Amino acid sequence: MRILPLTFLFALACTPNGAGPDLKEKQRNGDSGVQTTTNSTTTSSTSPTTDPFNCDEPPTAPPFDTVSYPIQTQEDFDFSLGGYLIYQSGIAVVGTNKLAEETVLSAGTAGDPRGVHGLSDGRIVIMSPWDGAIKIADPSTGGLVVLAGSLNIPNGVEVDMNGRIYFTSYGEVGWTEPDGSANDVIYEWPNSGSSPNGTFLSEDEQRLTVAVPNFNGSTDFVSFDRTGPDTWGEPWVLYTASGFFSTIDGDVCGNIYTVEYNLGKVYRIAQDGTGELLATLDGNGIWGFSAMRFGPGQNDWERDHLYISLRNTKVFDMDIGMTGRRHPTTP
After folding, report:
1. CATH number, domain at 209?
2. What does the pLDDT look like over 306-321, one tens digit per residue?
3. Which of 37, 38, 69, 151 has a CA that sits 20 to 30 A from residue 135's CA?
């Protein structure tokens, strides 16, 4: 195991309230642009899905019912125990319902973190770019643990069902236990300017996929297959899309969803490397489609709905009709 080049602090600060050129090419779509397929069959789920989607059935086809809520997230958002949609507001992490009624969960955490993620015990992981740290906020105590420091702009974050944290920072992807007892780098890009961002761990937790914007205006979706409890194989390119994509999530069948940052184009990428345009969200001239998550299946945040943020503006709610990957806070 190669230990992360990080400074693990374990200090409790109590508060009062592209893709790298050495990638193994297993790209399956054969070109560099997102492929759009047309399906004349239109179905839509009108109620929350609590059971896993039958992956032998074809995915629900567009168009999808879409509404929006006046929830003004910063770069990222997620869900917490108790069914809050959580995000940074000023220097505090807040939770909200669909009515945009905010509750402060943890004060004094960071400014505009690149990533946030809820843990099953109610704590919240925060990727704090400006001080190069991974932090864990505890809303029950108001405490803030600095889990790891000396990172080069921590970026995306994913959490498995046992609480292990998978993260990206500029030039690398790695993992750490939430108590810092073990950690490792999964991959370091040869070009230190590579900036892997959004991460998705498959339902069976055997594949990790990372969105890696390139310097040529495209984005590689780079996958790693698990080779052992703590080890991962060499990276390979599942798909390359034209445009800048910084966020991904996925359903129980392993399909990956992503949204183009500037244009609001939502795509689904199957595990065979084919892509499909699902929708184009209307940003009314505003850029910044920066995050997406399937709901956790509690407090009206449905597991078969995909929530997409236009930062500082609104959160879109798309009734996808396919169950999202289990969230650590899913009942």
Report:
1. 2.120.10.30
2. 999 999 999 999 999 9
3. 69
